[in-house]
Amino acid sequence: MRPPPPDPVARAGALPHRPPFRFVDEVLEVSPGERIEAARVFRPEEEFFRGHFPGEPIVPGVLLVECMAQAAGLAEEDPGGARLARIDGARFLAPVRPGDRVVVTMRRAASFGPAVRYEGECRVEGRVVAEGAVTLRTGSGEAGRG
Predict the structure, then answer these.
(1) Pairing with 123, which of 29, 76, 94, 129 sits 20 to 30 Å away (CA)?
(2) In the chain, what are the domain boundaries?
(3) Mean pLDDT in the chain?
């Protein structure tokens, strides 16, 4: 695995997403087209914590899936050209709380036409908190059934 570019935050900037919907803060390691490890800190002041859930805030599972999809997109040669097409087998194993640093690891599992499938997990302090697979449509083609 190759180390990230000199500025891992710059690699995260290759995403087409912008705050408040960017869910990768930095790229820790990347092997383009193969594997990535990225991180996101969920800051206590983030708006969604106010309603999910008052008095016991946790990160919505759908945002953990978005972390996985964005990380997988950053593993592609053209990170700005990948779009989420499918989610499979998402499981949420433990809550993620305000202030937690989530480390996302995604590995390319298959490619078919203009689509690629990545499988992986989210960890907090080494513990798996979520896992699943995402299929991304790359380039201008349409994703097939994965």
Answers:
(1) 76
(2) 8-137
(3) 89
CA 38 – CA 5 distance, rounded (Å):
12
pLDDT digits (tens, 9 = 90+) for 85-108: 999 999 999 999 999 999 999 999
CATH for the 8-137 domain, from 3.30.300.20, 3.40.50.10610, 3.40.50.720, 3.10.129.10: 3.10.129.10
pLDDT attached to residue 12: 73
Per the residue annotation, which of 17, 22, 52, 83 is the catalytic one?
52
**Structure token pair of residue 27:** 């790229």
Give a three-class secondary structure readout of 82-108: CEEEEEEEEEECCCCCCCCEEEEEEEE
Q: What is the mean pLDDT of residues 67-85?
A: 92
What is the widest separation between alpha-carbon atoms in the chain? Answer: 46
The residues, any chain, with a CB within 8 Å of residue 25's CB and separated by 6 or more, are: 9, 12, 38, 39, 40, 41
Q: Give catalytic status of residue 17 as yes or no.
A: no
| CA 10/CA 25 separation, integer angstroms | 9
